[in-house]
Amino acid sequence: MQLAIRHETHYDYDTPLAYSAQRLHLWPADFAAQKTVSWSITAPGFDKALAYTDGFGNHVHMITFGDVAGPVSIVAEGMVEVTDVAGVVRGLASSAPDAVFLRQTKPTTATASLRTLAERQFAGRNVLEGLHALMAEVHARVAYEIGATHAHTTAAEAFADGRGVCQDHAHIFIAACRAAGIPARYVTGYLVTGQGASSTAAHAWAEALVPDLGWVGFDPANAKCPTDNYVRVAAGLDAAGVAPIRGSRRGGNTERMRVEVRVEIAQQ
């Protein structure tokens, strides 16, 4: 299946922007189940961007620009061909050792309740069975509610509150996996909900390392493994590490950001 994607981030400022340096995780990586047909990024300073592949296999672009009086837009768009392989990720180059993804970060630090969650789901099950049980349990216990959390909400906070969005579902799943000794990573990308449908937001899920199978995706927000309705863009330890756009600026007081994402099934 081919998916057409357009992701625009628009910034407005009350005063001129003197200088900005931004790191972009906006370019999908190719692997066995995903091939980029066409892709482009339009942004100030992109013609001089520093492009590299990081240790996690992510395509990264560093851009700098300045002396901007008006609004700024960063647009990533293109076409990606995806095959449904039940979430199994093969053929993705990464120089980082798998054990790196056992490291807990502030958003994914496991509290006693999260450790108990992990113990109960993996008791008497093999790793793959336990991961599916954990995904279902997180989905059941944490209601999807936009606005219930914010960018810095931790897995422990969202789990205790029982509400969150896809970022929180992924962080909770990752925290429980790492507490159980299973490497897990945070994934950003896109999701289309069905034939002829579109989405108005980027998506996030998790991947966990399964013995004799490799990395497998799990989406607790939707209680399913990624299919050909998903496009994988980047992966890291947590949401902050693979934010689509992250950086710093001078000037440009009172920043207002608007994000518009459109994902559609392309005409075959």
From TrEMBL:
This is Transglutaminase family protein. SUPFAM superfamilies: Cysteine proteinases (SSF54001). Residues 158-222 form the Transglutaminase-like domain. InterPro entries: Bac_transglu_N, Papain-like_cys_pep_sf, Transglutaminase-like. It comes from the Bacteria. Signal peptide: none annotated.
